[in-house]
Amino acid sequence: MTVIPCPLFGKSGDSINELQLVEAISRRVERIIVFALTDVREFKMRNNLLSNVVLVKLPIIRYMGTFLTFFFSLIVLIIGYFLEKFYKFDLIYIRDTKLAWALMLSKKLRQKSVVKIPSFFEDEVIISSSTTLKILKKIFSLIDFLVLSKCKKIAVHSPLWIEALAKRRKIYRRNDYLVIPAGINLRKMRNILRYKDESVEEIKSRFFRVGFLGTLYWWQGVDILVKAVSMLKNKDIELIIVGDGALRQQIEMLAKKLGVNITITGYVPHEVALKYLLTFDVLVLPRKRIGTTELNIPIKVVEAWALGIPIITTKHKVFLKYGIRDLKDIIYCEPDPLSVANAISILLSNPVLRNRLKINGFRIATLFDYDRIAKNLLRVVRNNI
């Protein structure tokens, strides 16, 4: 069996998600050909994929990615026609409807296409012109509808997407969904858990390390986290931000103004980020409520569960859907500084709670192993060939 996925390639959480899925699939198929959108600055990044993976990188410029994706969709269509004629393959897995639209022009290719919709365009983008935003929303909504109504299967992060797509994109295909959530490589997690560093243990003994991991987007609520830490008035608390983004300077200025002991690492390789995560006493995600955050459990939450790191997060609908319990599996907060500060205080003063979250978290993480996810994806595809 041959699979042709079109994910991302780079240092972002989305890229890591897709490449870990590719890795899990590659252990179960004869050959896998990957067409990956790659920021030109990361084009020479090495990968550690298996020998049966052929990685074809399509270079993009980060801030032009959305528009270049439409062009690359035509390239993937042309390559797909060529492969269909001279080479047998069973599945095309594509992340993002913008990359998949051209394949929908071919009946044969769209019947082999599983398309993943990772987010709603209008939820994450801030545009000063309301007219421009309305026009772009209509364009991207139409693209979502055309692609998702024609592809073989629709891949989503959680079951909540079924209702969301029916309501917001008028897509009614209840039997044609594949749930492919953000996942982890459990073997990699076990290797990280074996990581021992005396300097890290020394740091943990000096500070209560409150951490955030991810890109600094407006909806991540990192500004809320900085304000929450400033309210605790505890000199033994250190705030660690593993990541980077457009709001970095704003966050640094806010922390300086409020006197918060903060370290921002910038972008680091995935395994380095996991080693930082291992040093956290708590991962805090006071994310704002938008479609993306309400419907998706982010990879960093699953990684924290796997590493036994307690998590404080906004009480999003997706956690309730999966039955994630407050003060047993996770600690819920509101995206408000006082609520976040109270949650940190509760955890700081309760070692029994910290241990309970550590034990229960690992149990939940095993449900998001990419080996399980890849096995389910291929089972569904094989049953429909």
What is the distance, rounded to the nearest whole angstrom, between the alpha carbons of the first and last residues? Answer: 11 Å
How many helical elements? Answer: 18
Look at the structure and name the CATH superfamily of the largest domain: Glycogen Phosphorylase B
Assembly type of the chains comes to single chain
Number of self-contained structural domains: 2
CATH top-level class of the largest domain: Alpha Beta
Give the biggest beta sheet. 8 strands, parallel
Number of strands: 14
Characterise this structure.
With 385 residues, the protein is of the alpha/beta class. It has 2 domains: 2-183 and 369-384, Glycogen Phosphorylase B (Rossmann fold, 3-Layer(aba) Sandwich); 186-368, 3-Layer(aba) Sandwich (Rossmann fold), CATH 3.40.50.2000. Helices cover 49% and strands 17% of the residues. It has helices at residues 13-26, 65-86, 97-100, 107-110, 121-124, 130-148, 160-169, 186-193, 198-206, 222-232, 248-258, 270-279, 291-295, 299-307, 317-321, 337-348, 351-365, 370-384; strands spanning 2-6, 8-9, 31-39, 53-60, 91-95, 113-116, 153-156, 177-179, 208-213, 237-242, 262-264, 282-285, 311-314, 331-333. Helix 10 packs across helix 16. The model is unreliable at 4-9 (pLDDT under 50).
